[in-house]
Design a protein that fits this description.
Layout (H helix, E strand, L loop, with lengths): L4 H8 L3 H8 L7 H13 L6 H8 L4 E7 L8 H16 L3 E7 L1 H4 L6 H4 L5 E5 L5 H8 L5 E4 L10 E4 L1 H16 L4 E5 L5 H16 L5 E4 L5 H14 L5 E4 L2 H13 L9 E3 L16 E4 L1 H18 L6 E4 L1 E4 L18
Parallel strand pairs: 1-2, 1-3, 3-4, 4-5, 5-11, 6-7, 6-8, 8-9
Antiparallel strand pairs: 10-12
Helix pairs in contact: 1-2, 1-3, 5-13, 9-10, 11-12
């Protein structure tokens, strides 16, 4: 039987509210107290100890790849390239990769994941900002080594591989301002608590602050073509003088462009639209999408490398790596057609 928050709180000598904050990666908990609570949760079996016992005696030479399951699932080159990087490094090190998608219901009880309960894996790579902090911490407490990709908890230190979200969005916003003279720019953000949304919004806000413009924020509950479409309709109504959109990712940028076309607004002549991620269809879209490129394959390689190192040698400290990004100029920002390879590289 899974222990209650009250049982953990009584043993730790703290309130249930403090335990809840620690297990959900919320602020307001002393670092030593947080670690003490997590240790007690492990000892009391708050998450399954079965996997940890298995790891202590043998290895499966499997690692798990877990990401969020949208409905319908929009598999893009973002997922594929990260997965390829993970798989390439895993194969080189003699490991196999098992992929699982989780939805909101599955994240309510991480200990029920078969990968954990059946001891199928030696470690986990968790990809994307939609995976909840409580779910991540529950898996972390299982004792199975794990690495986050494109996500980082605010309070709990866990190994993570991310890109420079803030600088990338700052660069692309600056490009709209400096190269095209645009000032009235909106940012289409994913949920405010998502790691990548927070960081990318901060880069946009920094660029707007430098020219004395107030941010124009439109929040979405997901970052898909559909939510980008809806966000664009809302922005056109809320900001009739809008000159450009900085989208949190390429999928929402595509949705924004689709909405503009249906509303008779030309891209980029009337409204510039830019994205983030550099997914494969970006250069094939009409107009070709200006975006920020992540080194997704390398992110996957680094995540697998760190995880396997921890599996085989253990960890002495938290490892968090931030990779650079590149600005990829195409036509959706207002720049002229390029002679570069139409399949992607600038």
């Amino acid at each position: 039987m899974k222990p209650s928050l009250q049982m953990i709180a009584e043993r730790a000598g703290v309130s249930t509210a403090t335990v809840s904050r620690a297990l959900n990666d919320r602020a307001g908990v002393n670092p030593e107290t947080r670690e003490h609570i997590l240790q007690i949760a492990r000892e009391m079996g708050y998450t399954p100890s079965m996997a940890a016992r298995g790891l202590a005696t043998s290895r499966t030479h499997n690692i798990g790849f877990i990401t969020y399951k949208y409905h319908p699932q929009p598999i893009t080159s973002y997922h594929v390239e990260i997965a390829q990087g993970i798989d390439d490094e895993a194969q080189q090190r003699g490991y196999h990769v098992i992929t699982r998608f989780v939805d909101n219901a599955m994240m309510l009880d991480g200990q029920r994941l078969a990968l954990i309960t059946e001891q199928r894996i030696d470690g986990l790579i968790l990809v994307g900002p939609a995976l909840s902090p409580a779910f991540i911490i529950e898996l972390y407490n299982s004792g199975v080594p794990l690495v986050l990709v494109d996500n980082m908890l605010q309070e709990t230190k866990i190994d993570a591989i991310v890109c420079d979200n803030a600088d990338g969005t700052y660069q692309i916003t600056q490009h709209l301002i400096q190269a095209h003279g645009l000032r009235r720019l909106a940012f289409f953000s994913g949920p405010a608590h998502w790691f990548s949304s927070r960081e990318r919004r901060s880069g946009y806000e920094r660029a707007l602050h430098e020219i004395g413009e107030a941010p124009r924020l439109v929040f979405m509950d997901e970052t898909t073509v559909s939510t980008g479409y809806t966000a664009m309709l809302s922005a056109l109504e809320q900001y009739p003088d809008l000159q450009g959109v900085v989208a949190v990712n390429d999928a929402t940028a595509l949705g924004a462009i689709r909405a503009c076309k249906e509303q008779g607004r030309r891209v980029p002549q009337d409204i510039a639209v830019v994205g983030f991620d550099n997914v494969a269809w970006g250069p094939l879209h009409e107009p070709p999408l200006t975006t920020v490129g992540m080194f997704k394959h390398e992110i996957g390689v680094q995540a697998a490398r760190r995880l396997i190192d921890v599996i085989e040698r253990g960890a002495t400290s938290t490892y968090q790596l931030r990779l650079g990004v590149e600005l990829i100029i195409r036509e959706s920002c207002g720049c002229p057609p390029s002679e570069h390879d139409p399949l992607g590289a600038p």
